[in-house]
């Protein structure tokens, strides 16, 4: 059995490709050009093949590159090898360009997703986004309907975290909003009571349940902290009243709402990558950490929106 001590696998394939191209054109110069290497490189590669095979592939006594009988015997197998290598390169390129279907939060804006997509392509990752709420994203990852998902997790377990606060249509008088201030007094018992709206992205136990406990502990009515069916519906309620939206600082800015942190608790969205193949998850974390952070709003500093 022949062992290629001095040639790498890539060198061997390149040598056989040079051999096939030179044999088909009858010229080392033209064969090298077809192989896209200098003539001297093609000659060295073929000479290396001959040394390892122990036989001459070409008769160098004539001006043309004429195959020896051994070279003619080797040519059919060499052509099959070169064709297989070219097919594998084509398949590898197709696999590299095959989009990675990624489930993302519905809160990600079109602009942020477009920027994430463009920057991922520059790093050799092609993404195909599927927007979905938290529970659906987790299920899509489990059922392998997507290759990966940005899943909602407690902030201590996540790769990215996004602080949340309350935002309203009017600027609050204080730098912090306390849930207990929404408790109705005697003078306001007949008035419409301000509510806190939880959008679908935050309808997860580690965010929703602490708010419900604060609601109950401070004496608010059950309906005063509620989960909205959509972010649009929740925002509409806030824009037309003194209601408040639980959201990130960046979301408040996009919706032109006034954002403040919550006095009693510090709710935080946590995100991580779930994937059927661990390499996909690690690749997204390492290659696109900054880009995903911006898309989720995890790159914002603490503070208040206008």
UniProtKB/TrEMBL annotation:
Give the organism's phylogenetic lineage.
Bacteria, Bacillati, Actinomycetota, Actinomycetes, Streptosporangiales
Domain HTH lysR-type: residue ranges: 11-68
Q: Does the keyword Membrane apply?
A: no
Protein name as annotated: DNA-binding transcriptional LysR family regulator
Q: Which family does it belong to?
A: Belongs to the LysR transcriptional regulatory family.
Which of UniProt's keywords are assigned here?
DNA-binding, Transcription, Transcription regulation
Superkingdom is: Bacteria
Q: Spell out the molecular function terms from Gene Ontology.
A: DNA-binding transcription factor activity; transcription cis-regulatory region binding
């Amino acid at each position: 059995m022949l062992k290629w001590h001095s040639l790498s696998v890539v060198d061997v394939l390149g040598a056989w490709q040079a051999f096939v191209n030179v044999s088909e054109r009858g010229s080392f110069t033209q064969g090298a050009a077809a192989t896209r290497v200098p003539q001297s490189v093609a000659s060295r590669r073929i000479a290396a093949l001959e040394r390892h095979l122990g036989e001459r592939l070409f008769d160098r006594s004539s001006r043309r590159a004429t195959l020896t009988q051994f070279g003619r015997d080797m040519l059919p197998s060499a052509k099959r090898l070169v064709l297989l290598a070219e097919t594998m390169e084509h398949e590898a390129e197709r696999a590299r360009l095959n989009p990675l279907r990624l489930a993302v939060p519905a809160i990600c804006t079109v602009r942020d997703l477009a920027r994430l997509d463009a920057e991922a392509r520059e790093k050799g990752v092609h993404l195909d986004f599927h927007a979905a709420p938290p529970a659906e994203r987790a299920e899509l990852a489990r059922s392998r309907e997507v290759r990966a998902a940005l899943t909602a997790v407690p902030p201590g377990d996540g790769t990215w975290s996004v602080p949340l606060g309350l935002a309203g249509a009017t600027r609050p008088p204080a730098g912090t909003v306390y849930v207990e201030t929404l408790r109705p007094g005697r003078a306001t018992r007949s008035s419409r009571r301000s509510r806190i709206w939880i959008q679908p992205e935050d309808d997860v136990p580690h965010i929703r349940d602490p708010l419900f406990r604060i609601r109950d502990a401070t004496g608010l009515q059950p309906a005063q902290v509620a989960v909205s069916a959509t972010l649009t519906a929740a925002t509409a309620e806030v824009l037309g009243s003194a209601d408040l939206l639980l959201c990130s600082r960046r979301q408040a800015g996009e919706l032109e709402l006034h954002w403040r942190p919550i006095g009693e608790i510090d709710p935080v969205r946590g995100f991580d990558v779930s994937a059927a193949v661990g390499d996909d998850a690690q690749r997204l974390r390492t290659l696109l950490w900054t880009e995903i952070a911006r898309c989720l709003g995890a790159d914002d500093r603490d503070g208040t929106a206008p």
